[in-house]
Design a protein that fits this description.
With 261 residues, the chain is α+β, with helices and mostly antiparallel strands. The chain has seven helices and 14 strands.
């Protein structure tokens, strides 16, 4: 499929009529071409999502390593504890809770964890809505990259300045790795997870992501103001319009209530 065809499937919420059929490097090339098409029509990149950092779900989805995609001004929204997310023009939407960070400056290629932490402005709880344009969520890693990184929406909760969380990377990573989240649909608990599920913690996930991002020929880099999801702490759960969900994060993150429309 061409980049234009990939974008049309995304816009129209239609299933792929053929397999992508290419390897991972070609998938990232196509993703970059789609990115340019979206910029050309007026959309603005607002950051990145890191996918499949939680190894506990790799076998379920037949993807055995992290991938990444772009977050857009048209897919990103913020809330202070309570938010609303439209599922219009999404296919097979699923919910993923995790930590989201914002960069204040671009890290150097050889940045240590402490240097990486110094490049972050805030951390927040987040809920990403992912989707698949292949029936039954059957795909390869390359498919997920070509399919916009499976990204559909991102709702970011209450933002906490990094300085209010920890003074160094070890403390930050320990706090976020130990932090737990419990997912509820209405009053029923659906799942629970912990920050350590994402490559031992969000800074390790970011470090891995930055290396992979910079290895893509002709690729982009993070810039000040970019938000980045660090991966899901639980399994990815199907959601539908009309459902009220709650993601109860422990400190230093906070509770999120999401209404889907």
């Amino acid at each position: 499929m061409t980049a234009q065809e990939l974008l049309e499937h995304y816009d129209r919420a239609t299933y792929w009529t053929e397999d992508f059929g290419l390897e991972l490097p070609a998938a990232y090339e196509h993703a970059l071409m789609v990115r340019q098409l979206r910029i050309a029509r007026g959309e603005q990149p607002r950051g990145y999502k890191i996918g499949f950092t939680n190894s506990s779900i790799w076998s379920r989805f037949n993807v055995f390593g992290p991938t990444w995609g772009t977050v857009w001004d048209t897919t990103l929204s913020f809330c202070e504890g309570q938010g609303e997310v439209s599922l219009a023009k999404t296919l097979q939407p699923r919910l993923e809770p995790g930590a989201v960070v914002c960069f204040s400056r671009t890290p150097s290629p050889d940045a240590s964890l402490d240097q990486l932490l110094a490049c972050l402005e805030w951390v927040a709880p987040g809920v990403e809505i992912i989707q698949s344009h292949q029936p039954g969520w059957k795909f390869t890693a390359a498919d997920t990259v070509a399919d916009a990184g499976l990204h559909a929406r991102l709702l970011v909760g209450t933002r906490v300045p990094i300085a209010h969380v920890a003074e160094d990377a070890t403390d930050f990573e320990q706090q976020l790795a130990a932090c737990r989240v419990t997912l509820h649909l209405r009053s029923q608990q659906v799942d629970e997870g912990v920050g350590a599920n994402v490559l031992d913690g969000p800074l390790h996930a970011l470090q891995h992501f930055l290396q992979a991002l910079r290895e893509v020929p002709g690729g982009t880099d993070v810039k000040p103001g970019d938000v980045v999801t660090t991966g899901t702490w639980t399994d990815a759960w199907p959601v539908a319009a009309g459902e009220p969900w709650t993601a109860q994060f422990e400190a230093p993150l906070s509770r999120m209530e999401i209404a889907f429309t």
